[in-house]
Design goal:
The complex is a heterodimer. By secondary structure, chain A is mainly α. Chain A has 19 helices and 4 strands. Classes of the chains: A mainly alpha, B alpha+beta.
């Protein structure tokens, strides 16, 4: 079968629909189960939290009563106390657990109240002691802040987990469909076409764990009697020729065999290939784990230094360092893959895992930067050797889009793990898991049969489009959101990565897209919207996913070779550098992301106008 | 014994395993969020008590008396200790690290523990310092004079497990998660097997046609290739049969 046969003989939309259906069902099932679980957990502990809030409120009430009581003890009448409102405002500002404080005299008349109208809630009253008597009451209304924060975090967790689960299940289903249906169908069709041309020996049945197995077996059963009869006829013809001493029967035998001999081959022209699942799919869990710490990197770098320009530069440098490491890891893999594949995978995952896990115990910003570089270097060196396993060219129509989705889903996973365990433990668990996974796949890795060459000069417009799409997404998700107000809400950060992934998956499935330059403008509109409109971050992440994926779809899968991946990483480094430059002029990272998108779109438009026509859409996602 | 799984079942099992893992992760997040909220509330209460004590002592220092002379501090500490459950001890010590007042009378005029000194020295930017010593957590705040000089520190000691103790029972959480997780597994298993059926049905119908010797009909590249192959097999079968019959006849003549 020729490589191009894959496109002609498969129906990618069927596999896409199947993956979307599986993703939807899993997402829905996780949403329902998670919502039920978290609701039960929240309800079970709601009273505990309310009681603890009440204790805090009572403590605050006692302290205020003590202070007011001492003032009254000095001889000042309660009604004549001055500066009380400012004092109460300060208490409320420093203690978000308190919604309102009021001071009432012994007749119950409210003398002071901040705010003037107390919000709904069950107030707690504490007597104001002066000696052995009480001169009034401090009435404190607890706020619902903690309970609201808990409820909001749990709701975000449900959403994030559902989208992550949907993406993960969709990726699994699409990979399964590609291996068990699409590729086997392609092989079966090639086999049947050969059979239709008379190549009976070339027919090979379909493996047992595919829905096509029965069809393949049906053809094998149809073929068997014809083969047997043909073999018998040929054997009989040989027998007749052996006793045909005067050659009188020869012409009749030749005439009888004329429709068979020379027109139908019963011997195979090539040995049957061993059909095993592609080992390159192991790159998906590798990437899931490797990118799981990406939402945590900006906030970790952010916390290393005091607020200021150096803090912004540290964040950008840390993010850029990991992508620079990835780019160099890719180059290292291309050099080392054909020489020492297993050693590269082993060393790469060990380096990436150790560097990631070590983050859990470090505090120094420079060491963190170096560790992110090492993590990127090791991860991509290992990842690319795994991707280059024999059979990677055949799977190119599928695995590129699935790898993009896996990278985004991985960050969703990291957000959930960090929310559950804390940031440092999330780094540690991701690192340890990477090392374990690396050891597990070490024995499976083969030496790649061919290693593609980097062809950076062939499609500059398309490469710029890829670089820009990744730069916009990275600058928005990691630098704008990762250092913004939600930087410590890891589940929410993960949710944004997953939203981008879901939007991208939609584009990959629908396979409709404008020109790459226009798609990049759509992507750039996302961060601009996020920066200009309050509470529009979700729409912004969706736009980034839509625009980015449309740009990637528009450039086609042919650019999705190592040069495309290298362009993506260089784009991320450039995006981080652009954001650092913007920080110098006190410009927000979101605006930097939008500017990167617009500049990249213009460059793409210029280069694609001059260059060859844009490749058609990928056949499958 | 080797168990052979079909494509659908294998995928369904993998997806179900992923679903369970995600739900377990979600339950862990739920526990973490509740624990963190609980810890934040207790932390918030302790910080408030400490800063209030600190503010009151600083206000007394404003009158011009040295820290060691402020006798009313003892009453303040006793009142606070009795009003705030969970606090084990409160200590006020001067800038040289010698205890001046405290709810533990035996500690008066004794130097403070080494762990506290280390914590104060290592604390650079936070307004409060924390030290863990002999199963207790100490949170302290500096007492500042009007001129910004440090006159000493006030520290409260709480049992370590006051903050660390989880309000969440793992067994209850497991039971709460079990039902929804099992329901999700059932949904996913059934849905994935059912979702894979239409594709399998198309191929099975075609397999039935091929087995019966009928030419598959309908659109699609696979159908066209299958139809061509069926036609070729039938034609070849006839040719081979005809050749065989002729050869049998020749053989009979011999």
């Amino acid at each position: 079968m020729r490589k191009s046969d894959v496109r002609r003989t498969t129906d990618p939309a069927r596999g896409d629909r199947f993956a979307v259906l599986v993703g939807l069902v899993v997402g829905l099932a996780i949403a329902l189960a998670s919502a039920a679980t978290l609701y039960l957990i929240e309800r079970t502990h709601h009273d505990d939290l309310a009681l603890t809030t009440e204790r805090v409120t009572r403590s605050i009430g006692s302290a205020v009563a003590d202070t007011v009581g001492r003032a009254v003890g000095f001889g000042l009448p309660l009604r004549a106390l001055y500066g009380v409102d400012a004092y109460l405002e300060d208490i409320i500002r420093r203690n978000p657990e308190v919604a309102a404080i009021a001071i009432a005299d012994d007749s119950g008349e409210t003398l002071f109240s901040v705010p003037a109208e107390a919000p709904p809630g069950t107030p707690i009253s504490v007597q104001i002691p002066v000696g052995a008597a009480a001169v009034g009451l401090i009435v404190v209304t607890p706020s619902q802040r903690i309970l609201d924060v808990v409820a909001r975090t749990l709701a975000v967790t449900v959403l994030s987990a559902s989208l992550f689960g949907a993406l993960l299940a969709g990726i699994l289903a699409r990979a399964f469909a590609a291996e068990r249906i699409d590729l086997r169908q392609g092989r079966l069709i090639a086999s049947l076409r050969s059979l239709a041309r008379g190549g009976f020996g070339d027919y090979s049945p379909v493996g047992g764990d595919s829905p096509l197995q029965r069809l393949g077996a049906a053809f094998a059963r149809r073929l068997a009697p014809v083969r047997r009869e043909a073999r018998q006829a040929l054997a009989l013809a040989d027998e007749i020729r052996a006793v045909d001493f005067d050659a009188s029967l020869g012409p009749r035998v030749d005439e009888a065999l004329a429709p068979i001999e020379g027109k139908i081959r019963f011997d195979a022209t090539h040995p049957p290939s061993r059909r095993r699942t592609w080992k390159g799919w192991w790159a998906v869990p590798l990437l899931l784990l490797g990118t799981s710490v990406h939402p945590l990197v900006p906030s970790f770098a952010f916390d290393r230094l005091d607020p200021g320009l150096m803090q912004s530069l540290e964040v950008s440098a840390s993010v850029a360092a990991q992508f620079l490491g990835c780019a160099l890891g890719l180059l290292a893999a291309l050099v080392l893959a054909s020489r020492s594949a297993a050693a590269t995978v082993g060393f790469g995952t060990l380096l990436a895992g150790t560097a990631t896990a070590a983050t859990a115990i470090i505090r120094d910003p420079t060491i963190f930067l170096a560790l992110r570089f090492c993590a990127g270097l090791g991860l991509w060196a290992a990842l690319w050797v795994v991707l280059l396993q024999p059979g990677f060219r055949l799977r190119r129509p599928w695995f590129w889009s699935l790898m993009v989705l896996a990278a985004l889903a991985g960050s969703g996973l990291g957000g959930l793990v960090a929310e559950a365990l804390g940031r440092r433990d999330a780094f540690a668990s991701a690192g340890v898991s990477l090392v374990v996974l690396g050891l597990a796949i070490l024995a499976l890795v083969e030496r790649p049969r061919s290693v593609p060459r980097l062809r950076l000069g062939r499609r500059p417009g398309e490469l710029v489009a890829v670089a820009t799409a990744f730069a916009v997404a990275m600058t928005w998700l990691e630098l704008a959101l990762g250092t913004g107000d939600i930087r410590y809400s890891y589940a929410e950060l993960g949710l944004h990565f997953c939203l981008t992934g879901v939007a991208a998956a939609g584009v990959f499935v629908i396979r409709r897209h404008p020109a790459p330059a226009l798609a990049l403008v759509v992507a750039a509109a996302g961060p601009a919207l996020g920066a200009l409109v309050p509470d529009a971050a979700i729409a912004a992440s969706l736009l980034v996913g839509l625009g980015g994926a449309m740009a990637l779809s528009a450039v086609g899968e042919r650019v999705w070779a190592p040069e495309g991946a290298l362009a993506a990483m260089v784009g991320c480094v450039a995006g981080a550098a652009f954001a650092a430059g913007a920080a110098w002029f006190d410009v927000e990272p979101a605006f930097a992301a939008a500017a990167v998108g617009v500049v990249g779109a213009m460059l793409t438009a210029v280069l694609t106008m001059r260059g060859p026509a844009v490749a058609p859409a990928r056949p499958g996602a | 014994m080797q168990i052979r799984l079909t494509f659908q079942r294998r995928l369904a099992l993998m997806v179900a395993a992923a679903t369970v893992t995600v739900i377990a992760l979600v339950a862990t997040v739920g526990v973490g969020v509740v624990e963190r909220a609980h810890r934040d509330l207790i932390d918030s209460r302790l910080e408030f008590v400490l800063t209030t004590l600190d503010g009151t002592i600083e206000a007394s220092l404003d009158l011009g008396l040295p820290l060691g002379e402020l006798r009313e501090i003892e009453d303040l500490l006793e009142r606070t200790l009795s009003a705030e459950p969970g606090i084990e001890a409160i200590e006020v010590f001067d800038a040289t690290g010698v205890s001046r007042f405290g709810t533990d009378r035996g500690a008066a005029n004794e130097p403070i523990p080494h762990a506290w000194v280390t914590a104060i020295r290592n604390n650079r930017s936070d307004p409060l310092w924390r030290a863990v010593d002999r199963g207790g957590l100490t949170i302290g705040a500096p007492i500042l004079t009007d001129f910004g000089a440090i006159a000493g520190d006030v520290a409260i000691v709480v049992p370590l497990d006051l903050l660390e103790r989880s309000p969440v029972d793992a067994g209850i959480v497991f039971l709460l998660t079990l039902g929804p997780a099992l329901a999700a597994i059932a949904i996913v298993l059934i849905a994935v097997v059912l979702a894979a059926r239409p594709a399998a049905r198309v191929f099975d119908t075609m397999a039935g046609d091929v087995a019966a010797g009928r030419v598959p009909t309908g659109g699609g590249v696979l159908t066209a290739a299958a139809a061509a192959a069926v036609a070729r097999i039938a034609a070849t079968g006839e040719s081979v049969g005809r050749a065989d019959r002729i050869l049998q006849a020749i053989d009979a003549e011999i």
